[in-house]
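RECORD TYPE: inverse folding
INPUT: structure tokens
STRUCTURE:
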């Protein structure tokens, strides 16, 4: 699941870069006038009217929030799992030491 969210982050970043590139390329042709100006106006209308930059940035923001929450949850579960393993190892070690001590004490009493 975390990999899918990481891929979504890259997808939205690529979409923003492509939209910015389209806006720059359309804006660069506007200085020549005539057809370039019409293309720039059409591109600007498409970007502003569709709201695709805003929608993409919004989706990117939501994706980033979800990714950060998933990372936080994964880190917390990882820490909890490590703490649990450490506690079980300590209990096992203590039990083994007690068994060893009891065996030694039983041998000494005989």
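DESIGNED SEQUENCE:
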């Amino acid at each position: 699941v975390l990999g899918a969210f990481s891929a979504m982050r890259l997808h939205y970043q690529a979409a923003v870069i492509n939209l910015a590139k389209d806006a720059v390329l359309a804006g660069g042709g506007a200085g020549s006038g005539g057809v370039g100006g019409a293309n720039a106006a059409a591109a600007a209308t498409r970007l502003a009217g569709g709201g695709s930059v805003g929608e993409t940035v919004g989706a990117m923001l939501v994706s980033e929030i979800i990714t950060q929450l998933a990372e936080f949850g994964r880190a917390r579960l990882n820490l909890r799992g490590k703490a649990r393993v450490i506690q079980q190892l300590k209990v096992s070690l203590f039990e083994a030491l007690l068994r060893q001590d009891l065996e030694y004490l039983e041998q000494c009493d005989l």
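NOTES: Residues 30-42, 44-50 have pLDDT under 50 and may be disordered.
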